[in-house]
Design goal:
By secondary structure, this protein is α/β, with parallel strands linked by helices. Helices cover 32% and strands 16% of the residues. The chain has a single domain (5-134), classed as HUPs (Rossmann fold, 3-Layer(aba) Sandwich).
Length: 176
């Protein structure tokens, strides 16, 4: 199989993992021999913006991807926030440290082209993949969490069936 790129990466918080995140990973895995998902703000959990811990967020991705043939080419790693290093340098060093056997990424997948500025010129290519579509013009983890908070069953339209019950259970406290 021939791929457009050797090693692509994307950064997602996955609070929780939803179909928009999956859309971006799907594009990356179609175009790259190897793909790396960095789960951002990995050091945070239990906060309003980052309620879920890293390993739970990783599990949500694995629940969907471990059944796919491409899973063997996908890596999921944590990336912590930093205020001491430039973000692009920090991310690329995290990949290098966590995946020393992988070549340096040659493409970054982003939802907005401005996100590429952190990585130019160190990553030669950028692919822009909107997490939204006409069917879902607005999609975010905050939106999914709000739906759960207000007992709006439409949250199921935005998460994978493999994760519906787990996500509902993870946010039970908000439901009570």
């Amino acid at each position: 199989m021939s791929f457009k790129y050797k090693h692509g990466f994307c950064i997602l918080r996955c609070q929780p993992f939803h179909i928009g995140h999956d859309r971006l990973i799907n594009q990356m895995m179609k175009e790259c021999e190897f793909g790396t998902v960095l789960i951002g703000s990995a050091q945070e959990s239990g906060t309003y913006s980052n309620p879920l811990p890293y390993f739970t967020r990783k599990k949500l991705i694995q629940n969907v991807w471990r059944k796919k043939e491409d899973y063997a080419r996908l890596q999921i790693i944590p990336v912590k926030d930093t205020t001491t290093l430039p973000w692009g340098f920090h991310v690329l060093e995290t990949i290098k440290k966590e995946l020393p056997e992988r070549e340096k990424p040659d493409v970054v997948y982003v939802g907005d082209e401005r996100e590429y500025l952190f990585f130019a010129p160190d990553v030669p290519h950028v692919e822009i993949c909107s997490r939204t579509t006409q069917d879902f013009p607005f999609l975010s983890g905050n939106m999914v969490r709000d739906m759960l908070k207000y007992r709006d069953e439409r949250y199921k339209n935005f998460v994978h069936p493999e994760n519906e019950e787990l996500i509902k259970k993870l946010f039970e406290d908000e439901l009570n």
